[in-house]
Amino acid sequence: MADPSPARGPVVEADGISKRFGATVALSDARISVAPGESHALVGRNGAGKSTLVSILTGLQNPDTGTLRFNGESAPAPGDTDAWRSKVACVYQRSTIIPALTVAENLFIDRQSTGALRPISWKQLRSRAAELLAEYGVEVDPNARAEDLTVEQRQFVEIARALSFGARFIILDEPTAKLDARGIEKLFDKLRELQQQGVAFLFISHHLQEVYDLCSTVTVYRDARHIVTAPVAELDQQSLVEAMTGESGRGSEPTWSVVDGAQGDGTPLLEVSGLTLDGAYQDFALTARPGEVVGLAGAAASGNVRLGETLAGLHRPTAGTVTVAGRPVRTGRVPAALAAGIGFVPEDRHIQGLIPQRSVAENATLTVTDQLGPFGTVLPSRTRAFAQKMITGLDIKTPGASTPVSALSGGNQQKVVIARALATEPHVLVAIRPTNGVDIKSKEALLGTVRQVADSGRTALIVSDELDDLRVCDRVLAMFHGRVVAEFEHGWSDEQLVAAMEGMAGPNHTKESDVSHH
Ligand SMILES: Nc1ncnc2c1ncn2[C@@H]1O[C@H](COP(=O)(O)OP(=O)(O)OP(=O)(O)O)[C@@H](O)[C@H]1O
């Protein structure tokens, strides 16, 4: 490949990289080259090999074959943490910042090289932290506790820490997954600023628009292989998707069909009234009918996620009632919500979602009740059959139903979480950012599945700030600071919806032809 910066050479250059996990080929003769100051996107479908490449580029795993060079020099020896840190850092969607520590402590924790024998002077630590943050233009108080920072501020601290080790090459693995629109804007501004200073980025995202907004070059992987590297300007979105999927035009619809048994006589399936959780949301009301997909839109602090979690029994509301299919649901208890017929797709699959060591089949059919005590009505053969149907229908890339979930790529793990929520054949499906980390093609299939769930006489509630997620909804309630500020019937514009989520729309900006709360 041509060297775009002959003076210094690429900050990173990987060639002929292969990596297998048992029978799975994660990377096959893959390559990447990133120039100083370049913003380089790496895209591909779930399971294409992106995270595996990241783990090799950061020294966490050794490739089976291939060469890796930083600034023209061979990669550090495996395990030489200090040397690796001076070359490259990765900011993952899950922060490595320790919430209970201050920003200053986080910046200087685990740093063996300086002053190991001297007792730490807190004053000195703080002033060094302040200097470091100022150097990279990060406006964060060094004395603040990390847990009090916004997601993007935490990312800035991680980036500053990486740069302070000398790295001028930073990998961002789905950094926007937990950010709202404003957070993304701030992150991108910071990245552009650092690029001006010569820092190079490898940017991994399933949001192709972000690739076009931020990056100058894009590399596509498909099925463990390098497919193309091109200037972003030369590859339009359609060509990009074609490179990712290996097909032109749209693929086939999912084969998964919804289990029957739901009735649709028009009586509300989900009724929420006066629901309040102090400090999160107030006086929320909703009446949803069978067949409806309702969106609950809102930015980070809007309260929409906590509301969805409350319906799933994760928080005990201060006031209000929830009724499913005419029956009151005991709030604040996950088993009660499940038993009432509320299926749940949580926001963070790592915390609430999966048991990594267990198989795809087990996870896909596991309910929280199973974890709490014997449930025992699901036969293994049914489990397997259901899992197989989901693997096909949701296009889960796995060697088989008995493969442990920990061996799946992030996006494929997310699909298992969705499968699990559907396994209980819920009356009401509550899904929080369901397509988080899912590739563009699977996203369509997945949202199509949510649509099918509703079409079969159930109700789905999609809690998200992703316009793609909300587009499949029949109507959308927009929340801001804990309250519904607008309701949109089909035919809304993205601009109106975004404005409402940002608290900039009064009710008179919305279509309220059939307001069904209250
Ligand atoms: N530790 C592991 N054990 C077994 N298989 C693995 C392991 N890590 C990754 N794989 C497999 O390697 C392949 C590539 O996975 P990888 O996580 O690199 O994909 P990805 O492109 O990052 O996907 P996503 O967009 O879903 O995050 C997948 O088929 C995955 O199942």
From TrEMBL:
Record-linked SUPFAM superfamilies: P-loop containing nucleoside triphosphate hydrolases
Record has Nucleotide-binding as a keyword: yes
Ranges annotated as spanning the membrane: none
Domain ABC transporter, residue spans: 12-248, 264-506
GO molecular function, one term: ATP hydrolysis activity
Keyword set, alphabetical order: ATP-binding, Nucleotide-binding, Repeat, Sugar transport, Transport
Keyword Repeat: yes
Protein name in the entry: Simple sugar transport system ATP-binding protein
Organism this protein belongs to: Kitasatospora atroaurantiaca
